[in-house]
Specification:
The structure is a homohexamer. Helices cover about 30% and strands about 30% of the residues of chain A. By secondary structure, the first copy, chain A, is α+β, with helices and mostly antiparallel strands. Chain A has one domain (about 1-135): 6-pyruvoyl tetrahydropterin synthase/QueD (Tetrahydropterin Synthase, Chain A). Chain A has a five-stranded mixed beta sheet with strand order 3-1-2-4-5. The relative contact order of chain A is 0.21.
Chain lengths: ~140, ~140, ~140, ~140, ~140, ~140
């Protein structure tokens, strides 16, 4: 079994908060990440899929296919966007990187499986120092 | 003459646009960076100052002093903020990285000079691939 | 289950050697790392904890809590220190990165568990090319 | 159990193609990576081995031993070489990074085991954005 | 005056050698870089242009314009290619990174000037450890 | 004129202090960097030399020559050493990175000039965030 990881990046605005809380309550839990006027990040997304390589080709999923899936399902929808307002698959969820990783997993899984590969991990770096991983 | 560079990072939301233009006009010039719902970046800030080291100490500006100046004058004002709305020294300016570099230069210069050092360069990486430098 | 990793850095001096061996014997086993006058590194520490996110908050451990634990339990005790002489939790151990990783794991585990999270991995980069991981 | 990872780099030329296909057929499957005049990469190789540290030494495999094994078995044979033509352990295989990872695993395994360590993972970065992992 | 740098990457094969020398003579001067079967790199290209920002826009050259120029004039011609055989602007030159930097400068200059910007520097990283800069 | 930069790394211990001051006085000026039990860093050294390339070879200084000079004159003397105690060219100087850059410049200059190249810059990164440059 071989694991292949594709790294992509996107820049987005977000805010961590609950609508049903006051700004002060949000600040107490989410700190400066709850800033009502938003802030943003260069998110680094690593998508790892696994599979058995075919002897005929020496690979199991074409990298350009994987790249295209990530572009269509994720990057085109989140890059230079507001994660709270503009991203359909984040609607109704608190815009934490944790929720973002789970949502991206759910968006990618069916498309990866159509290529007869297995989604293994979604990893998101919010900053150089903070990283989230989700394995389903 | 010795050059010393301190690297800091901050995360902020911004939008590139002119208020007196329609969203469409803004999109034609600034592209996806004009998204009305904002987007954001992990900005990487490099501040370079120069001076002659004293023989007594083997340095010319204390790194912790430099760090403190950048924190007070810049990072505390831009980190987890909206560059268009919340940053006083960006008021009335288009929130390009070019204007940000010039504004940060102007904010830092007097404080650096009080320490008898010379501000040499303000460099800002907006993404891994796009960097702006300003030398005054 | 979500994995969250916090990256921190610290600079320290150390020496790999056994007190009961001569300098020559130490050199034969530990090479230049046994230099009696010490050498040092910028250690890069990755701490990974795992848990189930609460639907209420969209996260399971607050990043600032995690950061604070690592600062108090580890960074404050090792940064700009001599690992052999000044770090209580390394006393009596050979100052290899392997032993350092195990010791950091033992220091962090109770504090992480108090936050109802599970410590998953302690990873230490001694240089850009050499990395140690410990999973308990 | 402790995991230790050594990172090395090598620069090589390669071409992804099947000899029994026409250039056009190869292009349809392997894209620009099938360029008949070759192209190349700075490959980044991570080798992870695992073992139990001895209390006597605080480590289980000497890093310089690990480094020497990787140099002799792999780097000396692939650095500044053509992976398709000049590397014996890639003969008869399509020069994908997937096949390269498996072949490097097979080359390293016996030598690592002679040191009473266990080979855990061979990871190869072909570019900054594409990485392959093999766990045997 | 503002400096803006765009970073791009490309993967190519090359060989450093003089056609009028024997393989042995080439090896004596160019070492392993003269390997007759080629080798390759992930080249990192930094293009820096300078200009005065307009007050109207807060910038002087649109980043997407700069990106497009570099793509058309350089990346499309060198990525996944053999620098010695397939790149018209390297014809008749020894494929050193030094010559590559000068040639890329010459290719980019007219297009940059059409945008009323000034080409300032072409920087090429051949590996992580070796970098060439050319300022015209 | 072409600029070529070679990057090397070394790990060393040091302490910033004046012998004629008390530990307390040293702490007041140099902070935690004056720790009497030493601390250390992975120093990153960039050496830039410039020259005109010969048309015959397409380069002006052979990279392996430059690498060898830096190894012999600097790396062999500072790697896994104590900068205060064991490095002859730092004797009698406060072990700041500023003084280290000047001293390395002085060590390298004659050897670079023997190769008919011009030393342009010595840059040292003490940590990822602090960098010193010296241009003579």
């Amino acid at each position: 079994m071989i694991y292949i990881t594709r790294k992509e990046q996107f820049s987005a605005a977000h805010r961590m908060y609950r609508e049903d809380w006051s700004d002060e309550e949000n600040f107490n839990v989410f700190g400066k990440c709850s800033n009502p006027n938003w802030h943003g990040h260069n998110y680094v997304l690593h998508v790892t899929v696994k599979g058995d390589i075919s002897e005929e080709l020496g690979l199991f999923i074409n990298l350009s296919t994987l790249k295209q899936i990530i572009k269509e399902k994720i990057i085109d929808k989140v890059d230079h966007k507001n994660l709270n307002i503009e991203v359909s698959f984040m609607r109704g969820k608190i815009a934490t990187t944790e929720n973002l990783a789970i949502s991206i997993w759910n968006e990618l899984k069916p498309a990866i499986e159509k290529e007869r590969a297995v989604l293994h991990c979604v990893k998101i770096g919010e900053t150089e120092n903070n990283t989230i991983e989700y394995y389903g």
